[in-house]
Every structure is written in C-alpha cells, then in structure tokens.
Automatic annotation (TrEMBL):
Organism: Triticum aestivum (Wheat)
Key words, A-Z: Transferase
Protein name, as recorded: Acetyltransferase
Encoding gene, per UniProt annotation: LOC123058293
InterPro entries: CAT-like_dom_sf, Sec_Metabolite_Acyltrans
Residue ranges that the Swiss-Prot or TrEMBL entry lists as coiled coil: none
Organismal lineage: Eukaryota, Viridiplantae, Streptophyta, Embryophyta, Tracheophyta
Length: 528
C-alpha cells in the first residue's frame, strides 16, 4: 500500500478549495449492476490507488497557495474523484414540486464522529473510497449534475463520466474533546472545516457536484465522516438512506436501493424560472451573528415533557373556558395523544419566545417543521422514494398566548397542525405551489420564527457503522443556519434521548441558557 502522500498544506476554510497537486483515479467499474437486497462483499482495505499527474498550472497554483498560507487546524492532504461502480442506467430524473423550492437552500452538511479506526490512514481512505464507489452505483443520481432543459424543466442527469469529490483531511493538533465540549457552544470555527462546499447554494448543482465527501482524522485517532448533498436532490430521509448504504457496503451488508420513480407529483408541468446564470441566493442573511449549541434531552426528560404536555391538555379540555380550542382541535383531527417530539418542540417554542425580549405581546410567532409526506399521501409512495418528499407546516400563536398558556396548550397546537397534514392538505399545498412557483423562504425575517429541521427518527447512529464501531456524535456544517433554526438528532445511546442543535442570536441564546423553566428538562450530554 502506498503511504499517505506528502501533504501540500492549504487552508480548507477558504471559500473555494484549491485543487490538490494530484488527483487519484478511482478503481475500475464493476460489471454487475446493483440489485435489491444484494449481499455485497466486505470492503478490503488493501486497495491500491494510482495517482495521475496534475497539469503544470495546477501544481503552480498549489505552490502559490501553500507558500503563503498559515498552518490550518484542519488540512486536506488528498482528493480523489470517485465514480459510481456498476451503476445501472437511470436516465434524467426531473425535479419535483418538492425538489424545486429547495434550489435556493444550501447543500445539506451532516456527518459523524467515530472512534479511531485502528488502521493506517491510507487503508482507511481506500476502504471508504471503494465502498463510496459501490454506494454511488446504487445511488447514481448523486454523482450527476443538474441540467436545465430548453423548456425550463430541471433534471438530474447521470452521465457516464460523472464523479464526486472525496477529500482526506487531517487535524493532528485537534482531538475529539475540541469538538464535543460539554456545556459550551459548538466550535463552529472548527466544525465548518469538516465539510467541503461550505455554504454552496443548491442551484449551483448545475456547475458543481451534487455530493461531496470528506474524511478527517484527528490527532487522537478519532475520525469524522462528512457528507454534503444538494438539497434540491435529497431530503433528510434520502440523505440518511445513502449514508446507511455507504456504511453497510463497507461492512458487506445487504443494501436497499432507492426508488427513483417520479411519483411524488412527478407529472407536474410547473417550472421555476431564474433570470441570469447565477440562479437564486439563500433567502436569509448567512453572515448574521449566531450562537450554536447542542442541547440534550435525556430519555427521562422526553418522557417527562410528553407526560406534562398530555396532562396539561387533558386539564385544558376539562376546562369549559377552553371549549373553543377543543372544538378547533377536533375539527383539525388533533385529539390523539401528543407525541414526545411535539412536546419537546412546544417546550423549545415557549422558551425561545420568552428569551426574545424584543417581541411585543401581540406579535405572531411561528413554529415551522418539515413533514415527511411519503406515508401520508394516498396512495402512499415508497419509504425509500429518492428525492424531497417533504412539506413545511406552520403553527402560529401570539407571544401573549404562549406566555399565558401552558405546555399542553402549545403542544396541542403543534399536534393539530401535524395530524391535519394528510393527503388532501399535501395535494392542496402542491397545487398552490404549482399556481405560483417559488423558492422556499427559509429564514426568520420578522425575528419571531422557529424552524425545526431533521428528525430524531432518522437512522443517524443505527446502520452507520463503517466497521470500526458505533458513531459518537452527529455534527453539521454552516449550511442553512439562521436565528431560530433548530435540528433534532437522536441521542447517541439509542435510548430515546434527543439532541437539539439550536442556532440563535447571541443575546437570545444567553437568556435561554439562564431560563430555569427551560433548563429543568435539559440534561448534561454524556461524555463521548
């Protein structure tokens, strides 16, 4: 096995990464196409890769950047172009009415910290690259590009020469403890460099890869595996399906191919037109100051919130003063049990609103969350449908209402919104978009909104063992973050605990972390 290449160090925190002095070619493609539930052989770590010489101009560029750059904390030492192995023909995949609104969003950036792999870096990188090639053979669309057709339809095109970028980075002066700091803000100056394509807008998939990958080895041997994926191509369900597939192939496990049928309003004739070559920009100020913290709710705290929310709502329903609310909830189909997730969201909604002292009592607050439509549509679509099959649902209340009512009242409103979003509501939302196509207005323009992304139901830990142990923590990059953006992750222990990544204006975060009513349900995350 060739040793790791002598690093030409350059700062990966720059907006555009400079090319590396050499480009490693992928292994030859396998002849057999991927099949449903096929058993893949385990990945051998003893794969030899060949380095192709870089153009002279590329080498000169690297020498210039390397000579003047200070020593970075995280350094990319190699880059490979990885092709899908044995990919079956897929053809153009048209973006749906749920995909197109995401063209103005950043690429998704999520990844996992793992314990030391117990193998040399060269073997680790080769193993991950080969299993990535096989995973892309199952998901060939992720190696494609976006193409706008003459009639303005946008499709994912998977050409024979399509490839993705796979980076190997090292951080010899950093350890896991530098990233997972207990009772402290996320060190975003470090985590941002765990991912390529920082703050890339999804429309740029016309010119840039639809996915990119980076494995970073820390000084204590811990490994971070980061995945960046175009948000107009995948939602969270498809994102983690691919991550699971990649890890499973590395272990030699069976794979479940995605469903590429365009049966989520795939027959729509609506198009989204953009003036100029650059396309849309994000709909929020990505440079606004933020504090970011991962807040842990233990399994016991989650159970406590759920019990409190349902107990409070039962009390409210018995109170004749709340008769109109009960009637409204029944009309919306909201009389089932409030879920753990809805209870936790209500707790966050009330607490953050209290911390936003600038809001007037009569200001309207909004809590948005993404709803997976796969099982809600009639007929249902496949649970492994590839693409975005989500819609955003909003619940509103005034500041005064949230302050004067209890947890159960807020949780009941969230519950009613979610249970009402079934087939009819989904079809109406799609029809409304078709009548007026537009990008999704991500952000918090009035300073009174919260947006919950991701889901504690996503298999972030289960199924993502690459062969050397269960992941230790989930972390994300700077993509799609603004005041009020939250993302829910399952707890690492798999016991029902939940981690919530919270991004807030600095003064709001400071007040939230001093709110005793909020903190009574917050736990100290266990040390990794």
């Amino acid at each position: 096995m060739n040793p790791d290449p002598a690093p030409c160090l350059y700062n990966v925190s720059t907006t555009e990464r400079c090319p590396t002095p050499s480009c490693v070619t992928p292994s030859p493609r396998a002849r057999a196409a991927a099949t449903t539930h096929s058993m893949a052989p385990p990945i051998s770590a003893d794969v030899v890769v060949e380095a192709a010489p870089a153009p002279a101009s590329m080498a000169v560029l690297n020498q210039m950047v390397c000579a003047g750059a200070p020593a970075p904390s995280i350094t990319v030492v190699s880059k490979q172009l990885v092709l899908p192995e044995g990919a079956p023909p897929v053809g153009d995949l048209r973006l749906s009415v749920s995909d197109m609104p995401m063209l103005s969003c950043h690429y998704i950036q999520k990844g996992l910290f793992f314990p030391p792999a117990g193998m040399p870096n060269a073997r680790l990188v080769s193993s991950l690259a080969l299993s990535l090639s096989r995973a892309l053979g199952v998901f060939p669309a992720l190696a494609g590009r976006l193409v706008t057709l003459p009639d303005d339809r946008i499709v994912i095109r998977c050409d024979d020469g399509a490839a993705v970028e796979f980076y190997h980075a090292v951080a010899p002066a950093l350890s896991l403890a530098d990233f997972l700091v207990r009772d402290a803000d996320v060190p975003t100056r470090l985590t941002k460099d765990l991912f390529p394509m920082d703050r890339t807008v999804s429309y740029e998939g016309h010119r840039r890869p639809l996915t990119s990958f980076q494995v970073t080895v820390l000084g204590d041997g811990a490994v971070f595996v980061g995945l960046v994926a175009n948000h107009a191509v995948v939602d969270g369900t498809s994102f983690w399906h691919f991550f699971n597939t990649w890890a499973g192939l590395c272990r030699g496990e069976p794979v479940q191919p995605p469903d590429f049928s365009r049966n989520f309003f795939g027959g729509s004739t609506a198009v989204l037109r953009f003036s100029g070559r650059d396309g849309p920009a994000v709909t929020f100020d990505a440079s606004a100051p933020l504090r970011e913290r991962v807040i842990n709710f233990s399994a016991a705290s989650i159970r406590g919130l759920k019990a409190a929310a349902n107990r409070c709502r039962k009390s409210n329903e018995d109170d004749e003063v709340k008769g109109k609310l009960v009637h409204d909830l029944k009309v919306q189909g909201g009389c089932g049990e409030i879920s753990s997730f809805q209870s936790m969201c209500a707790h966050m909604w009330r607490a953050v609103t209290r911390a936003r002292l600038q809001l007037a009592a009569d200001a309207t607050t909004t809590f948005r969350m993404a709803v997976n439509c796969r099982h809600r549509l009639r007929p249902k679509i496949s649970p492994v449908y590839f693409g975005n099959a989500i819609q955003s649902v909003a619940t509103t209340a005034t500041v005064a209402e949230l302050a004067s009512h209890d947890l159960g009242w807020a949780a009941a409103r969230l519950h009613a919104t979610v249970v009402a979003h079934e087939d009819g509501a989904i079809r109406k939302a799609a029809a409304d978009w078709e009548a007026a196509p537009r990008c999704f207005p991500l952000g918090n323009p009035d300073g009174a909104a919260l947006t919950m992304g991701s889901s504690p139901r996503f298999p972030m830990y289960d199924g993502n063992d690459f062969g050397w142990g269960r992941a230790l923590a989930v972390r994300s990059g700077r993509a799609n973050k603004f005041d009020g953006k939250m993302s829910a992750f399952p707890g690492q222990a798999g016991d029902g605990s939940v981690d919530v990544e919270v991004c807030l204006a600095p003064d709001t975060m400071g007040r939230l972390l001093c709110d005793d009513e909020f903190l009574q349900f917050v736990s100290h995350a266990p040390s990794p």
